[in-house]
Amino acid sequence: MPDPVIRAEALDLTFETGDGPVHALKDVTLDVSEGEFVSFIGPSGCGKTTFLRCVAALETPTGGTLTVNGLPPDDARKARAYGYVFQAAGLYPWRTIGKNVTLPLEIMGYAAEERARRRDEVLRLVELEQFAKKYPWQLSGGMQQRASIARALAFDAPILLMDEPFGALDEIVRDRLNEELLDLWARTGKTTLFVTHSIPEAVYLSTKIVVMSPRPGRITDIIDSPLPAERPLDIRDTPEFLAVAHRVREGLREGMETA
Predict the structure, then answer these.
(1) 43-62 pLDDT, tens per residue?
(2) Per the count of CB atoms within 10 A, which of 101, 134, 161, 195 is most buried?
C-alpha cells in the first residue's frame, strides 16, 4: 500500500503569546491518501486552518511529526507540492483575471508561451475562459473564487489546500460552486484538504471528514464517506447523507462536551 500523501503523527502546536501559551493543536494523528477529498470541520478556533498552515509550512509544529509527499513541509513547499485557496479570493485589482492566474507562473519563471497555455487550460477548467481580460471588480464573488482556484491550479501541484473558500458566499452560489468543485476534483484527481464550518458542505464534498474539537484542536472523529462518487445536490435529502451528517453533528457535540 503506498505511503500517505500527508501524514501527521501526534502533532502539537502551541503559540507563545504575551498572555501566555495558546494550544492550537494537540495530538493530531491523520493520514491522507492520494486523491482523497478531506474536509475539516469544527468550531471557530479549533485548529482547522492551523493544520492547513502547518501542511503549507506557514506554521511550524512544536511537537509530533508531519510529512507532505514524504518530505518535511518546508521541503514540500519548495518542491511546489500544493496550491492554496484562501477564504478571500485575494486577486490583484489592477491585473486582469488572466494575469492574476499567471502570477505564480511569472514568479516561478515560466516562459510566456507556457504561462498562456496553462492560463487557458485552468480557466477552461473553472469555466472562466471568456473572462481572462476582465478585472476582478467586474466579476461576482463566486466567479472571483473560481479565478482563485484557477490560480492555485495553474502550476499543477498535486495537492490543493482550501481554507473555507465559499464561507462568505450566499447559499445558492455556494451550492453551485460545491457542484463545480466536486466535478473539478473528479477531473483532476488532486488530493484536496478543505476547511469548512458547514456540515452539509463537508458531507457533500468529501471522501473523508475530520471532525475537530474546540481548542486545543483534537480530532474527535474521522468519517470515511459511504456516498457514491456521483453526487447530485439532491443526494442531501437521502437517508445515507443524513446519517453521515448526524454522525458529524454528534462528533462536534462530543468535542464540545469534552473540551
Answers:
(1) 888 889 999 999 999 999 99
(2) 101
